[in-house]
Write a structure and sequence with these properties.
With 75 residues, the protein is α+β, with helices and mostly antiparallel strands. It has 3 helices and 3 strands. The longest helix has 15 residues. The radius of gyration is 12 Å and the shape is globular.
Amino acid sequence: MGELVRFIAQALVNHPDQVMVTEEEDEDSVIIELRVAPDDMGRIIGKQGHIAKAIRTVVRSAAGRQKKRVTVNIV
C-alpha cells in the first residue's frame, strides 16, 4: 500500500524526490503517513481536499482485497 501512495504522490508533486512514505502495520490495519515538500502540500490536498480524498479511496479499495483497514495521513 505504501508503494501505491508513493507512486500517486510522486506523479502529482513538483519535487518527487522529497516524497516520504512510512507504513505501520498491525494484524488488521495499516497506517500510511505521507510527507511532501511544503510547497507541494496544496497539490496533494487539492481544492477542498478532493485529491486527498481520491488517494484515500484508491488505497482503501486496494486494501479491501487484503481484508485490511487502511488510514492515510498527510503530514
